Amino acid sequence: MNRRIVVAVAAALAVNAGLAAAADAAKHPTMGEVLAASKPSDWHALDPANTLYLQLASGRVIIELAPQFAPQTVANIKALVREKYFDGLAILRVQDNYVAQWGDPSADNAAKRRSLGTAKAKVPAEFTIPLGKDFTFTPLPDRDGWAPQTGFVGDFPAAVDLQAHQAWLTHCYGTIGVGRDVAADSGNGAELYATIASSARWLDRNITVAGRVVQGMELLSSLPRGHGDLGFYTKSEHPVPIKSVRLEADVPEKDRAHLEVLRTDTPTFAALVESRRNRHDEWYKQPAGYIDVCSVPLPVREAK
Amino acid sequence: MNRRIVVAVAAALAVNAGLAAAADAAKHPTMGEVLAASKPSDWHALDPANTLYLQLASGRVIIELAPQFAPQTVANIKALVREKYFDGLAILRVQDNYVAQWGDPSADNAAKRRSLGTAKAKVPAEFTIPLGKDFTFTPLPDRDGWAPQTGFVGDFPAAVDLQAHQAWLTHCYGTIGVGRDVAADSGNGAELYATIASSARWLDRNITVAGRVVQGMELLSSLPRGHGDLGFYTKSEHPVPIKSVRLEADVPEKDRAHLEVLRTDTPTFAALVESRRNRHDEWYKQPAGYIDVCSVPLPVREAK
User: Fold this and answer.
1) Looking at domain B46-263, what is its CATH homologous superfamily?
2) Which chain B residues are within 8 Å of A182, Cβ to Cβ?
3) Which residue, among B171, B180, B286, B296, would best test binding to A if mutated, counting the most A CBs under 10 Å from its CB?
4) What is the pLDDT of residues A19-41, one digit of tens each?
5) Could you report the predicted ipTM of this complex, rounded to two decimals?
6) Residue A181 burial by CB count (10 A; 0-12/13-18/19+): exposed, middle or buried?
7) Which one of A13, A202, B30, B50 is most buried, counting C-beta atoms within 10 A?
C-alpha cells in the first residue's frame, strides 16, 4: 500500500511541476487578475461543522479546523466548544513575532480551573499523519529547507516526507496549534495558539496543528504583547477576554460569515502561486523566482 | 579584483561550514546557555552615529542604520533626522503580516507637505552592493530558497550572489526599508517602513534597506491595522503620531539606551545558530536540522 501511495504523491509532484510554467505563458497576470478571472468552481464554502467563531470584544476570528490532520484533537476541541468551555476564558499570552495563546487562566489551579466536561483530558499527539490512500497533495515547485517537500493539502499549507511516509501541517501565519507541556501527549485542545509570526517552522512536527485562521487574524496579531516569560501577560497586564467560541454549525444561518476559500488543487491556484513567485507588476524590478509555503496567500472571500 | 573577492567569500563559506558541527559536540547547549557563556568581546555597542530613536507615545523604537548597504540613503535619513523632519509626522500604514510605514501624511500635497530641508529629494536606489574587498560575510550552513547564500554581515541578515558579485540585506522581522513609488530611485528616506512580518523576502533586491529595529518592535507590530488599501489608515482611523526621531549621538548620554548586540562573526554566534537549528531541550521532539536567515535571533542587551 505504501508503494502505491508514494507513486501517487510522486505523480502529483510531476504533474504539478508545471506550476512554474503555467502562468508564465499567460503574460504574467497579477494575483488580483488571477482571482478576478477565477470561476465559481475554484472556490468552496467552509464546512460549518469544522469552522469556529472565536468572539472577542474587538470582533470575530474565524478558524478552519483540520480534522484530516488532527482527528482526535479536533473532536475534542469541538466537544469543548459545544460545552461552551472557552466562553469567558482569555487570551493569556501574546509573544511578539511568535504566538497568541488562549485558555483557562486558572488551568494550573486544580481548585479553580474549569471542568473539561465530556471532553478528554488526554489526547494523543497528532504531529504527523501517515500518507494514506486518500492523501492528495499539491506540491510547490520550489525547494524548501525545513521539509523535503511542501505544498497544500486541502486548504492548508503542508509538508510531506516520502521516505518517512508522513505529512504534517506547517507553521505559517495564522496556524492554530495545541499548547502542550513537555510530554508530547500533554495537549488536549483546551489551550490553543495562533502563530502571529509569518513563519515558525521549527514547531513543525513538534506539536499538534488543529487548523488555521481564515479571517480576523489582525485581531490577534495586534494585541498588546505580554511582558512575562514567553509573552504571558503579567498580573498587572490585561488578559484579553474571550466572549465565546462557537461552531459555525451551531450559529443561526443569518449570523454566519459564509466564507469561501480558493481550492488549492486548481489551475487558478497554480496561477496564483506563480503570480507570487515572480511578481511582474511594474513596481517589482527583480522577481524572486521562488516562494515558500508560508508566503503563498490563501484567498478567502464572502460567498456571493 | 572580483576574483579575489570571490575567493575571500568562498573561503569564509568553507570556514563557516563548521557552524553546524560546532555546538553539536558541546552537548547541545540551548540559546540561553550559549548567551550565558558569552564573553564581553562577543558583543559590541551600537554606534551612536548610526542609531535612531523613534519615539512614539507608547515608547521608544531603536533602529540600527546600515550605511554599508545604503550609504546615500542613510546619509539622507540622518540629514532628515537632524532637521527634525519626522517630529510630528505619523505612522500612516499598518498592513497585517507585512509592514508598518511612516512619513508625512501630506506628502502628496505640494502645498501642505513638509520641506525636506537640506536633505535630497532624490537618492539613487541602493538595493544591492557589489562584493568589495572589505566585505566580510558569515554564511549560514543551510541552503536558502530566495538567494544563493544567506548569512550575516555585521549585525544584519544578508544574502550574497557570488555570480552576480552582489550582496543585499534580507527582509526579516524588523527590517527598515525605504518606501518608494514605481521608479526604483523614487525613495529618499522620508518615508520608511518596518516589516512586521517575520519574512517578506520577495522584497529583497527590490527596495533599499536602510537598517533594522533592534529594540521596541512590539510597539510597531501591535499597532492597529489600517483598513484602507495596502493597510493605510483611513480618515476615520488613527494615524499614530511620531513624537520625534533622534540620532543617538544627539541624545544626552544619560538618556541613551546603551545597547549591545552579539557579534555575528564569533564562535558564540555560531553556537547560537546551531542551538536554534537543532533544538535539543526536552520540549522539542523533532529538531528541525535547518534554519533560515530570518529565523536566527540577533540578541541585544543593555550594556553592563
Assistant:
1) Cyclophilin-like (2.40.100.10)
2) 282-283
3) B286
4) 444 444 458 999 999 999 999 99
5) 0.90
6) exposed
7) A202
